[in-house]
Amino acid sequence: GAIFLHYNIIFGVDLVGEWWQIYYLPLMGVAVLLLNYMLSAALYLFDKFLARFLSAWVLFFHFFLAIGIFLLVKLNS
Known about the structure:
Helices cover 64% and strands 18% of the residues. By secondary structure, it is an alpha+beta fold. The chain is elongated, with a radius of gyration of 16 Å.
């Protein structure tokens, strides 16, 4: 069945899709985590501060991603 994939406070539900498309958000989170890890590992020898900053940024990103996923689940329940 169709589920809501995006909600906008101005327009309401503006994206509806299949149930399996809800897994795009966690998949995007894993992709960002892997990309961030590779960049951080490559930069660690040259700039330790930037590598650690990237590692802290991914926690910030995943915090807001988790909030978005939680709200999306609440919207569909």
